[in-house]
Amino acid sequence: MTALDVEAELRDILDNRDVARLTGFLAEHPGLATTRARSWCDHEHGVGLLEYMAMLRFDHARLGLPRDLPGTGAVARALIDAGAPVDAQPGDRETPLITAASYGDADVAQVLIEAGADIEAVSTPDSGGVPNGTALLHAAVFGMTEVLDLLVAAGAHVDSLEMAAAAGDVSAWPLAAADEQSRLRALVFAADHQRLEVIDQLVDAGTPLDQADARWQRMPLHVAAEHGRPASVLRLLAHGADPDVRDPQHHRKPLEWCRPANRYLDSPAHDEVEAILRPLTRQ
Questions:
Q1: Beta-carbon neighbour count of residue 237 at 10 Å?
Q2: What's the total number of domains in the chain?
């Protein structure tokens, strides 16, 4: 087989999450688990095999794969058993765990954590996700609650009010001492991860509902709508959030953010969010 043939066969095995076939193929090609795939046209800079698995569920539609992709964690475990490095290698912009956190594969994240991946490692300053960010920060920013909860349970350091809000417990962070911008960002994270008690606490502390934070220009109701968080949408509306306010960066209402053209996460919960917002939104 040529090198290109090997990569084509490997990709087919990974896409089909065929652990038995993968184990045999790796035995035939020692060292393959430690390499970066260089000839895959949709990964022009090359991709580590663990990172590829961590992205697979998120990329299912683009790759023509079904939404439900069981077995990604088992494939990740087989790759690690064959020598795939669990942390970043020279030249990598982020670790496999950060990739799993960004793309929301909790099964791959769990395997990496169990294999001893560094949960406090940070991405490089020129990374494409959150520069200089930990896996926890990536999971929080990209709305990957299941991975975020795994990381917190594994002991990831919660180092700010914003991350505490994302994790659902702000008891160690006196809200009266926090500046408004921190509380605004915290409210966005609480809304994104459906931490309803934290939403209540932040609103009770005087956090504005319809104001964007200065750093990222994000608004609570807009993010909750974009990511399909019906419980947060209902709670924010109950507190008086205005469904007709447009965000300052893209000038969209929450209902517009909920629609397929404007969101990057895809969930049946978006239909529920749209059903809530449509009758409340002026056309």
A1: 18
A2: 2
